[in-house]
User: Which sequence fits this backbone?
């Protein structure tokens, strides 16, 4: 890992790797992942386009921050839908529940 200073003053970690004598660099900045200069990691790349590469790590490659946020939003949305369905029953079921009756189940087949 090589630490590269940007024009904005921010220091970004870059993974440097060599393919066929040429040195390439790819962005190694991932949320919740801190790198130290000189730290070694595994880089995966396309064999026909070695400039397209990624750091092979579970956070950032397999799971990204965008996927995590989208999953949380989807879970909250599904919870709200389930809650609204359960909290607003149809009047017939509500009356039957208040009277202590359970709705009669219809048989699947009349014998």
Assistant:
């Amino acid at each position: 890992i090589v630490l590269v200073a940007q024009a904005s003053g921010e220091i970004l970690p870059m993974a440097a790797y060599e393919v066929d004598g040429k040195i390439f660099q790819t962005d190694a900045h991932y949320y919740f992942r801190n790198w130290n200069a000189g730290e070694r990691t595994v880089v995966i790349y396309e064999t026909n386009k070695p400039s397209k590469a990624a750091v092979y790590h579970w956070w950032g490659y397999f799971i990204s921050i965008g996927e995590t946020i989208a999953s949380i939003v989807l879970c909250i949305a599904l919870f709200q839908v389930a809650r609204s369905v359960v909290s607003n029953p149809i009047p017939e079921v509500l009356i039957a529940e208040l009277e202590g009756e359970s709705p009669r189940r219809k048989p699947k087949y009349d014998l």
